[in-house]
Amino acid sequence: MCRWMAWLGQPVLMDELLFKTKHGIVAQSLHSDLGAEPTNGDGFGVGWYGTGSGPGLYRSVAPAWSDANLRDLAAHVESPLFLAHVRAAIGSPVQETNCHPFRHDGWLFVHNGFVAGFERLRRDLMLAVDPDLFPLVQGTTDTEVVLHLALTFGLREDPIGALERAVGTIEAVAARRGVPAPVQGTFGISDGTAVWAVRYASEGLPRTLFTSCDADAIRRLHPENPRLQRLGHDDRLVVSEPFSDLPGLWREVPPGTAVTVRHGDVLEERPFTPRERAVSVATGPIPDTARG
Predict the structure, then answer these.
(1) Cα 107 to Cα 146: distance, rounded to the nearest angstrom
(2) pTM for the complete prediction?
């Protein structure tokens, strides 16, 4: 599938986590231990928040390990919150508009997994997207459609709730089209102030997802490691698979769980419960007040 990571905490040069970590995201693009495919070389992307308005974005169809521009950019851009993604394409073309993260206004969105039978579901799902958002879908991936469904269903006000409604709508459409177990994977979302992450599968075990433990515990466990000693109170990582095998650094997110990470060492978990949102192909989502 793919691999992704999110960092929220003190400002760091991105290459500290992209290139200089032993089993960081670029190393995982060459060899993933826990992914469905060991190599993720069908493009990459990184989105970051800094001093400008909204997130910056750099995406390419080149493998992450061979892109000199990424290496140079990452060595000079410092950010307190960024998302990175390396892609293993399954069904959609290798093109820049299909590389993650996807950006809308101040939002970034990544996904590891798939929507099964997407070619059979795409038309119905696209017609459920708000008409004002419909022209903004530029690529051909299932992930970009999920993002625009979530935007349609209230991402700005309630990111996890909007994603629950998006996934629930996909499952309902799939049931009508005879597509079993349509949703698989993990999702990452940010607006520049927080990171929301979800681990979910309609059926079976979802793709892996981990969060770093709190910085105080990590520093106590590994006083010999200067890099870990620099961790601050707010610093958190959300990753598809751990960056190292040092004990006490990582906690696996349970299946069917949504995680919220905020500044102030806040990490909250709640069940992720998809639910269908009634839609009209002519007008988009039906307001809750209009439903019986």
Answers:
(1) 13
(2) 0.90
